[in-house]
Amino acid sequence: MNAASGSTTVSTAKSQPASIRSFLGWPKAGPIPLAVTAVVAIALPLVLHSTYWVGVCTLALIWMVLNQSWNLVLGYSGIWNFGQLAIYAIGGYTAALVSLHTGIPWPLTIVVAGVAAMLVSLVLAIPSLRLRGIYVSLLTFGFAEVVRLLVIADSSGVTGGTFGLSGFDGFGISAMAPEARSRTFYWIALVGVAITLLAMYLIVRSPLGTGLMALRDNPALAAARGVSPMKYQLVSFGISGFFAGVAGALYAFTYGVVSPSLMGLGQMTLLVTMLVVGGMGTLSGPLVGTAILTLVQAELQNWPEIRLILLGVILLAIVVLMPRGVVPLLAHRTGRLKSWMAQGNSAQTKSST
Amino acid sequence: MNAILQTLVSTVVQGSMLALIAIGMTLVYGTLRVLNMAQGVMVMVGGFAAYTTVVRTGLPTWICLIVAAVVTFLLGVLTYYSAVKPLLGRVGVDFEMTAFITTFAIATIVQSVVLLIYGPRQKPFDPLWPGRIDITSDVSITYHSLIMAAVAIGALVGLGLFLSRSRYGLAITAVAQNLDAARLMGIPARRVYVVTMGIAAALAGIAGVLLAPLYFVYPNAGDLPLLQALIVVIFAGLGSVRGTIYASYIIGFLSAAVAIYWKSAYALPVLYVVILLVLVVRPNGIAGKPQEARL
Asked: Which of A198, A230, B145, B148 is the most buried (most CB within 10 A)?
């Protein structure tokens, strides 16, 4: 009798932290799904026979890097930064300019682009973090538009104006056969996604991530408990800017061109829709949302007129019908399924003892 | 001397246009706490409505102002029912953020639909009243810009009277000042929301007709006005009608001065730097009240 009650208390004490952890929404990397996803992702270009589809997947991977970086500020920190596309474009332009004018090897160029984007992001963060709520989105959105208009109006030849920059070497594999080249682009972008995902995973599980989420959920309490809003959010802007710049550099090197069309309302609608569909403030949300919408995009390629209309409608419908996105909804459902199965299990073990 | 006169004329014209567009955004934000990103699209739709009535059917020019106002009013009401109403009273979701995204979605949808119907080409639109008067030998004002200033100022005065004298206007003011107290006094807040969104859109639509002869009619015509209106509302502080009018003329003056004395492509970036400086000193604009204690 005594022993039995003792064992139940132990088991509840053991299960308590796990349930709290899932309640807090900390990411748990299941080893089997992760391994399966990785294998599928690596083998995908070998299975796909058309270069077109490998190209579509490569673009999706680049967007995944960008969306993950955006998610850190928008989802985890809850700062309404709508200027991320400008940071992304600045990364792309930096990579293009560096490889046009210097002979630095490409991995280093990508890092340089990331650092340049990080610096711009930090400069943008300083006035933004003084503001609250809606004013932040106004300021950052305006910043992005001004960057776009300045590039378009630029007649000095540095950024190439409306036509953008092209003719740089990129990864230096232009001599390869088209099929092998598109596969190489894909794998390079995949490495980018993996590094970004790992970085985000480590950040979200670190005290930095916890502090950011605390500042998002209850700024007054978090600040009172010693989490400095300025310091934490500045760091999140910096890291997010770095990865956005890397995404821009990957884009520039893969497609061999950067132009103002990297930014703009249409592009922003697409990426925000990806984030909203996947679910902001989750690790896998940006990946899932990007994958879904890239597929939708590619299928609609033959009807460019209704593409944006449909995107707008999807965005509106998702926000109205499931405001937290697909991933939290699925997580909620599987969580309930698991707890229901666990209940059945414990009832069985109880009845058997 | 001539440049100074030119700057002053452009300040009055541009400031009045900005006021028309930005007042709508600030009214909607004041009553509903929605930052309406579809305001720029309303400007564009106003231009297209006028273009369609004048060019396609050949009706007299004055009617197009009314048609544009009615069309954009209805579109504003539609925006409310599709993008804002479903979000009202949701628990656990940041209302301002989601409404920002949904109105943004509306802007994208409307812009793409117009693109689908009319195509991307810029369409010329004749001034409402052709001709110009000379002030000095070099400076002249087109009659159209006189009409722009007159219609805009007339609409603003009308709006002011509406807000301070009529039943519906007072209801809007009351809801903006204190939602709970207004509801306890028996004001139907939901109906006030609909009317506010409609009026805000109609003001932008009128501005769209007036701007059409200067900037042509095309699907992206709303982007620049939206951007300028955003700068005005940040500068003024969201929700303050009086502050918005002052801010419109200040921003109008700055952009006119930069365009005339330097280069028109630099007008927006310069305004942006000014805004950054203002926000660093006063995080809620010149007339806005702080909404929460800063940490």
From this structure: B148
Q: Would you call A145 an interface residue with chain B, using a CB distance cutoff of 8 Å?
A: yes
pLDDT tier, A78 (very low <50, low <70, confident <90, very high otherwise): confident
Whether residues A258 and A276 share a domain: the answer is: no
For chain A, say whether B87 makes contact (Cβ under 8 Å): yes
Determine what percent of chain B is predicted with pLDDT higher than 70.
93
- pLDDT class for A21, splitting at 50, 70, 90? very low
User: Does A70 contact B at CB distance below 8 Å?
Assistant: no
Give the structural domain span for B32. Answer: 19-223
Q: Which residues of B touch A79 (CB under 8 A)?
A: none
DSSP for residue B220:
T
In angstroms, what separates the C-alpha of A237 from chain B's closest C-alpha? 18
Residue B222 has pLDDT above 90, yes or no: no
Dump pLDDT digits (tens) for A116-126: 999 999 999 98
3-state helix, strand, coil in chain B (%, to 5): 75, 5, 20
Tell me, yes or no, whether A90 lies in a domain. Answer: yes
Average pLDDT of A120-143? Answer: 84
- For residue A172, is it left (φ>0), alpha (ψ between -120 and 50) or beta? left
ipTM of this model? Answer: 0.82
What residue numbers bound the domain in which A299 lies? 268-353
Residues A279, A171, single domain; the answer is no
Find chain B residues with C-beta within 8 A of A323's C-beta. Answer: 90, 93, 98
Cβ B218 vs Cβ B122: under 8 Å: yes
Number of domains in chain A: 2
| Nearest residue in A to B118, CA atom | A305
What's the rounded Cα separation, in Å, for the pair B167 and B145? 33
For Cα atoms B278, B42, B258, give the angle at the middle one, nearest 5 degrees: 40
Statement to judge: residues A59 and A130 lie in one domain: yes
Residue A203 lies in a domain: yes
Chain B residues near residue A138 by CB distance under 8 angstroms:
35, 230, 233-234
- Among positive and negative, which fits the CA dihedral B186, B190, B191, B193? positive
Is residue B71 included in any domain, yes or no?
A: yes
State whether residue A131 sits within 8 Å of chain B by CB.
yes
Q: Report yes or no on B138 lying in a domain.
A: yes
Question: Is B141 a member of any domain?
Answer: yes
pLDDT by residue (tens digit) across B53-111? Answer: 887 776 777 788 889 999 999 999 999 999 888 888 777 677 888 888 899 899 989 99
Chain A nearest-CA distance from B155, in A, is 26
Neighbouring C-alpha atoms within 13 Å toward the C-beta of B205? 25
Q: Assess contact for B68 and B221: CB atoms under 8 A.
A: no
B293 vs A contacts (CB less than 8 Å): 220
> Touching check for A167 and chain B: CB below 8 Å?
no
Please give the single-letter amino acid code of residue A1. Answer: M
In a domain, A193, yes or no: yes
Q: Do B284 and A142 touch (CB under 8 A)?
A: no
> Of the residues A210, A236, A263, which one is the last residue of a structural domain?
A263
Q: Residue A25: name the closest of A325, A321, A332, A323 by CA.
A: A332
Interchain CB distance below 8 Å, A138 and B292: no
Whether residues A197 and A284 fall in one domain: no
- The answer to whether position A143 is within a domain reads yes
B111/A265 touch (CB, cutoff 8 Å), yes or no: yes
